[in-house]
Sequence to fold (467 residues):
Amino acid sequence: MAECVKDSDAEGRISYGDYVVLKRGDIFKSVQIENKKKVIFEKQWFFLDNAVGQLYGAVFEIEAGGSLKLKAAKHSGDSLDSKEAGQDNRHIMDDGRSQKLSRDDIETLKEQGLKGQEIVQQLIDNSTTFKDKTEFAQEKYIKKKKKKYESNIKILKPSTRLLAMMYHGREPGKICHLRYDTLAQILTLGNIHAGSKILVFETCAGLVLGSVMERMGGYGSVIQMYPGGGPTRAGMESFGFPSHFHKTLHEFPLCKVNALLAGTLDLSEKDGDGNGRSESSQKTSGVSEKSSEPQSMEVSVDPQEEMRRAERERLREQRAQEKKLKMEEKRKKLASAAALLEGRNADGLVIASRFHPCPVLMGLLKFVAPSRPFIVYCQYREPLIECYTKLREQGGAISLRLTDSWLRHYQVLPNRTHPVLLMSGGGGYLLSGTTVAAKARNQHKAEEPVTKRLKLDKISSSCDSSA
Fold:
């Protein structure tokens, strides 16, 4: 039992190279811990070196010089709550004269080295209306001032919930305004679990891809279908997955799906742009060689110039060799992904992109096995209505549902439980369903009237014999 606790303790400690999530109040930021790397978060800069070796979830205080100091556990004696409190706030006037300390005085306190808690205590002592406020108003005042003047940073381990809240709060446009509760529904309705083969097409900075990989736990296969020249995985890298997670990830360009379906995919084809660049470089090098020949006949060659030319040639050959290795590795990845897709037995399909989902959904559903779930996210309702209509007409899917998620936060405190006034306007729309074998379904429909006619013939024959 002691060894198990020790192992879990070791896994929960921060180390160099880890991706972590910094939290201050309701604001998050994802960074990678590097040696003597300057991090800027909420207009403050600091170094994360002192956090190495500490447990995840620890709270640190930013000191002078940008160093972090582990903050001790909170004791009951450290509370700033006042014992005196008023009955109500009806006589308090917010005229800006209740605070005796000016902005310059507060800056002077900071220069003297006072910490955030001490500055908050000074603000309480110099407030003429603090003791007249109710207990609830005093607590709200202290919480507001702590958030402004205390420099506390909490370091957390990355997770789907934290990264989804971070992206939705800081850059919602990058993830197509995908809210974290909608992302949870995607993972649930898509039946994402370990050991499955999932197709993912998303343009949400890799957040949906990372969420699927986290749910699968490094077991199974994830095939990322990407548009353009290459996949985007910034959000997935922020999870900080171990190396064996990346072995389950495959990639396939969306532009080659039709060729794969038609059986005309050529894995040995070369990159046209790369050949064009190499041919042009060969031509320019040939021209330079030709132009340098008459000069060599007239002027003697400088030994240093000859060495520099040889160095340039060596670097050019090295870059060409590296490019050739990258192209070969890319070709192998493409072949492995194509082999997984050719079976057309994927266990699920997840689509969340800024593109129109209808043509993508109709093309990728052909790779999904029957009786498997698929889920499509879109910020707007009309494209999903078009997908719904197309699937109803074409067949091949049942249990189609077009849903919209609604989220509202509640403040739960003694005698102060109420819904939060500000809430998210919308979390997007989801289209979910289950694939079926369309051929068997059509065949069953064609044979159904025949069986009915046979049954009617038997009934009529039995009536004639009885008569």
Q: What stands out?
A: The radius of gyration is 32 Å. Residues 303-342 form the longest helix (40 residues).
